[in-house]
What does this fold into?
Amino acid sequence: MEVVAKARYVRISPKKLRELRELVLGKEVNYAIDILRMYQREGQKFISRQ
It folds into this structure.
């Protein structure tokens, strides 16, 4: 099953979010969440939503 998420009115450049997306793309969910917790970037909170 494929999941698509969209965010509107996010005040951060798409380039910064793409960098984080590439880190977690294709990873297992729990592993991707752990990566995002440890990665300190501005867009991290928009992708992980935690």
User: Anything to note?
Assistant: The first helix runs from residue 14 to 24. The chain has one domain: 14-48.
